Amino acid sequence: MLDIKNPIEARKVIRKNEYRNQTAGTANKYVQGNLCILPSKYAMDFASFCQKNPKPCPLIGFGTKGDPSLKDLGDIDIRTDVPQYRIWEKGKIIDEPYDIKKYWNEDLTTFVLGCSMSFELPLIEAGIPIQHIENDTIVPMYRTSIDCEPAGQFSGKLVVSMRPLNSKDAIRSIQISSRFPAVHGAPIHLGDPSEIGIKDIMNPEYGDPPKAFKNNEIPVFWACGVTPQSVLQDSKPDFCITHAPGKMLITDKLNNDLAAL
Amino acid sequence: MLDIKNPIEARKVIRKNEYRNQTAGTANKYVQGNLCILPSKYAMDFASFCQKNPKPCPLIGFGTKGDPSLKDLGDIDIRTDVPQYRIWEKGKIIDEPYDIKKYWNEDLTTFVLGCSMSFELPLIEAGIPIQHIENDTIVPMYRTSIDCEPAGQFSGKLVVSMRPLNSKDAIRSIQISSRFPAVHGAPIHLGDPSEIGIKDIMNPEYGDPPKAFKNNEIPVFWACGVTPQSVLQDSKPDFCITHAPGKMLITDKLNNDLAAL
User: Fold this and answer.
1) How many CA atoms lie within 13 Å of B51's alpha carbon, on the beta-carbon side?
2) Which domain of life is it from (chains A, B)?
3) Number of other CB atoms surrounding residue B127 within 10 Å
4) B167 in contact with A at a CB cutoff of 8 Å?
């Protein structure tokens, strides 16, 4: 873990390619974002897709065509400030570089989407144990049977993240995450996974499998920022760039600034 | 049902003993209250009990010793303004009169506690079906294994009301009822009834049994204003007066005035 509390300092290290790992826990009072960079011909459709699907795709940053800075989110150069990237061509990964200087061009537009880390800290601060954090694993994520609202060429299934919680913590987690509509907000489901098309809760499509459920634990499901990656895989644009899973953009925005109340 | 929207008009009818039935649906934008009237020697302990148990016993009105009015809640004479009362001696019901003029005395203090009707209307307005209202039955209520915080001679088990909801509505109902901490607030439990000591969900201790659960429905449990009646039954004060179940005090306070946000 990159143990730096200040987001500007953390980005400096990442910018120099001195840290190339996952960003969970780094500058943890600050918003981290999912990244998606697209050629201009796709930009309006993708913006529209985010607008129609605010729970999985909460847009917290929107660059100007050809401009690698994101002034709203801090002194950011998107070409260098993420630990690792993925370069996609027609839905396939062709490279996983540590900067994208050689891929950047004047036609690209940057999108930054909120991520659940922003409400996990308030959950932990409320005394709610988060299994995947305690085990230092990646949150289990599942492709559901729920269709996103399509926009232009972008369509696909909703991906959800899952946290096993007892009933009391499930209720409290609904209250707390409701305060953060800009980072997925309240859960979209709890209880029976098959109701949203999840066949095997122990076998997630993304992330690590959960531990066996305790008797009093129920699965609680939040819309997940991996949804756009899954949609990009399906929709197969000629070209796009995302962050590598878990290796997010660290911004200067406080998590608490995203709280609706 | 007493189909009057204005709480002052509704109380006038009740005051004249022209309506003696349950008050559900009457003046439904206004707060209705559970009633508890106690001799002064118990008043401080009961006030303390309410303070220690705000979820089941949210105190919304607190009279002055010997004074039957409740100016905070409207132009109320507590001796006449409830459709039917119960007179208790040592935990046993000895009378169920339509007014308490002959029982009132200078030593009595009135307590009014919030009730779940105040958040049921916002639930219905959010499109959430409430089974017991749709079936025109009384909400099922259960004595749990959860101890209230004792205060002086008052102690006993928490009573909960239960509404069967699908997962989506359960999540939404947690958000909506969280806005109303003064009337029980968020649920205290959902899912497995045995975790809170309920042996048979189809066999409630108070109110009417629920209908058979649909496949996608889970039981959602709120702290219930019947708790103080159950506690009074156990704690057996020499004398007390309550409302008869379902026949509540209608106040001039808007439900929306109780919303925390």
Assistant:
1) 9
2) Bacteria
3) 8
4) yes
The string of pLDDT tens digits covering residues B140-199 is: 999 999 999 999 999 999 999 999 999 999 999 999 999 998 899 999 999 999 999 999
pLDDT tens-place string over residues A33-57: 999 999 999 998 999 999 999 999 9
B122 plus B209 within the same structural domain: yes
A188-202, A234-248, B18-32, range with greatest mean pLDDT:
A188-202
Minimal C-alpha gap between A216 and chain B (Å): 8
**Nearest to A18, CA basis, from A103, A137, A112, A99:** A99
* A13 lies in the same domain as A66: yes
A100 shares a domain with A89: yes
Considering the domain architecture, whether residues B147 and B197 belong to the same structural domain is answered as: yes
Rounded CA-CA distance B176/A231 in Å is 32
Q: Is the Cβ of B105 closer than 8 Å to some Cβ of chain A?
A: no
B137 and B191 share one domain: yes
CATH number at residue B167: 3.30.2040.10
Q: How many structural domains compose chain B?
A: 2
User: For residue A37, how far is the Cα from the chain centroid?
Assistant: 14
Give the domain range for residue A64.
7-115+236-258
Which amino acid type is present at position B8?
I
Task: List the 30-59 stretch of A: residues with Cβ below 8 A of B.
Answer: none
How far is B52 from B60, CA to CA, in rounded Å?
Answer: 14
Q: Is A259 on the interface with B (CB under 8 A)?
A: no
Closest residue in chain A to residue B195, using alpha carbons only: A216
Please name every residue paired with B92 in a beta bridge, in sequence order, or none if there are none.
B89
What is chain B's Cα-based Rg? 17
Bridge partners (DSSP) of residue A165 are A218
